[in-house]
């Protein structure tokens, strides 16, 4: 990897550079190998130029290799760790590796993009019953692990000055969708964690927020839905979203880059709505189909 350029560096021909120097700090991204996490890794490697330390379960090895290649193409360092990031032990072990790799006060951005939820019904007597193990696993993946990793980062003094910690939310807090009650509950817990951590970390100069956006096309969706179902999903989103289409992972990732900048430094404890007005037409669609 080329050595970082300082502000007063100039090219060999003596022409002052118009490019910003690479940022020596890092982004920690849980769920980095596909979907939103992968897109965010590539975006923040380009702007503001962060190194990427990512954790993933190994389900998408091809896209994980693509993430590594694209981050390196941006001139940044990258280290992807294959592990289950949802447990307290994995957070401690991962933070130890990150400290050795990047050093103290190196994490400018922490993004919690883990997917791992169970769908079903709380009172069902069939195979979709949400048993305690499913409940615990969903809360560990989608809520508790945000706290586990934050504790591990603070314990090792890994957060850079003015670090940004970001959880990801969806619009299910505004409406009802069958079989997703457990996901909604876990995301509600995540929102409370974000607010309380914002209070605890605010005096230290850090910012903790939640980014809410609608459905985006990811490998997980392609794995779950048949092509016909995906086409129907896209059509329904086009009908209810003012822009007439679904959001993309690239749009979400570019906005995360914005949130790392000084201009976004006053967001704290916020649920930032990046849904594009996805739920505005729900009543209209029901009453005037």
TrEMBL record:
Answer yes or no on keyword 4Fe-4S: no
Q: Which UniProt keywords apply?
A: Oxidoreductase
**What segment(s) does the record annotate as region Disordered?**
1-24
Q: Does the keyword Oxidoreductase apply?
A: yes
Family named by the database record: Belongs to the short-chain dehydrogenases/reductases (SDR) family.
Protein name per UniProt: SDR family oxidoreductase
Q: Which organism is it from?
A: Corallococcus soli
């Amino acid at each position: 990897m080329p050595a970082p350029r300082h502000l007063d560096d100039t090219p060999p021909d003596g022409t002052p550079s118009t490019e910003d120097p690479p940022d020596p700090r890092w982004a920690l991204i849980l769920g980095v190998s596909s979907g939103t996490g992968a897109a965010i890794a590539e975006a923040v490697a380009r702007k503001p130029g962060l190194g990427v330390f990512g954790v993933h379960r190994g389900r998408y090895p091809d896209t994980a290799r693509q993430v590594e290649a694209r981050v390196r193409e941006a001139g940044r360092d990258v280290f992807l760790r294959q592990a289950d990031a949802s447990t307290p032990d994995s957070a401690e072990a991962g933070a130890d590796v990150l400290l050795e790799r990047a050093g103290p006060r190196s994490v400018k951005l922490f993004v919690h993009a883990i997917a791992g939820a169970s769908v079903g019904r709380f009172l069902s007597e069939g195979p979709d019953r949400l048993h305690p193990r499913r409940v615990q696993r969903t809360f560990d993946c989608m809520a508790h692990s945000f706290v586990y990793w934050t504790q591990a980062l603070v314990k090792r003094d890994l957060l850079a000055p003015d670090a940004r910690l970001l959880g990801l939310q969806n619009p299910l807090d505004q409406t009802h969708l069958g079989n997703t009650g457990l996901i909604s509950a876990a995301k509600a817990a995540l929102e409370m964690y974000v607010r309380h951590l914002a209070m605890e970390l605010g005096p230290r100069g850090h910012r903790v927020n939640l980014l809410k956006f609608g459905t985006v096309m990811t490998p997980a969706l392609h794995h779950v839905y048949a092509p016909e179902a995906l086409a129907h999903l896209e059509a329904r989103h086009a009908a209810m979203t003012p822009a007439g289409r679904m959001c993309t992972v690239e749009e979400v990732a570019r906005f995360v880059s914005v949130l790392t900048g000084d201009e976004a430094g006053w967001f704290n404890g916020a649920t930032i709505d990046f849904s594009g007005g996805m739920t505005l037409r729900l009543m209209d669609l029901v009453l005037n189909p």
